[in-house]
Write a structure and sequence with these properties.
The structure is a single chain. With 254 residues, this protein is mostly helical. It has one domain: MetI-like fold (Orthogonal Bundle), CATH 1.10.3720.10. The chain is 83% helix and 0% strand. The chain has ten helices and no strands. The longest helix has 39 residues. The C terminus is likely disordered.
Length: 254
């Protein structure tokens, strides 16, 4: 365990040293601020109440949009798996969510819901098709020998879900969550940069660009990386734990 951690730390340290060296060569903080300057800017920001208000604003909306997409993606994916007509009805909407650029949605949503709720809706629109399609794919894997055996032994609907559908769905669902979480943060913050809602990380990135505060730009980028990694780690850990509990070891009595 220690060796992989030490290896990762050494690699990260090497990249940071290279970044610092290049910033010293450039010697223009408006072009490339170094890690030490960025860390100083982050430290100064972290002692203010505005910093925590900004982080909370963006985190809550991204988390809310993703969690809604997670719940509805699974629910509608299961519905579409059970009823092919539902899949046909949902196909155009899912295709539009996948294909239409985020910027187009941002312009429309600024008119419809305002900048305050922009992040929440954008994250939902980006994450929903990923979770929906992977749910469909995962449930489709359950069709076959295992499902036929479950029908032969007349397992209840709950035990079919627990011992047939869940093991088939879980790998696709975990993969979908990893992709959707990353896309949620990228699209959510990008939408905030365009819509600049008050007290958002996107607004701070926009101000950093306007005032050429490159050290603040890197500092906020680090905050985004840290927040997204923390949220992904916690959510996936909870998902694995819930799956283990559902897969429990009780018998298969009919």
């Amino acid at each position: 365990m220690a060796k992989p951690a030490a290896k990762k730390a050494a690699i990260a340290g090497g990249w940071l040293a290279l970044w610092q060296m290049v910033s010293l060569i450039v010697h223009q903080s408006v072009l490339l601020a170094g890690p030490l300057e960025s860390l100083k800017a982050l430290t100064q920001m972290m002692v203010t109440a505005e910093f925590w208000q900004t982080v909370s604003f963006t985190m809550l909306r991204i988390a809310g949009g993703f969690l809604l997409a997670f719940a509805l993606g699974i629910a509608f994916g299961a519905l579409a798996h059970r009823f092919p007509i539902a899949r046909d009805i949902l196909a155009p909407a899912v295709s539009a969510m996948k294909s239409v650029p985020v910027a187009c949605f941002v312009v429309l949503l600024l008119v419809w819901v305002g900048s305050k709720n922009l992040t929440f809706v954008i994250v939902f629109l980006v994450a929903f098709p990923i979770l929906y399609l992977n749910t469909l794919e995962g449930l489709g894997r359950a069709e076959g020998t295992l499902l036929e055996m479950a029908q032969v032994f007349r397992l209840s609907g709950w035990r079919k879900l627990r011992y047939v559908y869940l093991p088939a769905l879980l790998p696709s669902l975990i993969s979908a969550c990893q992709l959707a979480l990353g896309m949620s943060w990228k699209s959510g913050v990008a939408a905030e940069v365009i819509g600049t809602p008050l007290h958002s990380i996107g607004q701070q990135l926009y101000f950093a660009k306007i005032y050429l505060e490159i050290d603040h730009l890197f500092a906020w980028t680090f905050v985004i990386l840290l927040a997204s990694t923390l949220f992904e780690t916690v959510f996936l850990a909870l998902l694995h734990r819930a799956a283990r509990r559902m897969e429990g070891t009780d018998d298969l009595r009919m």
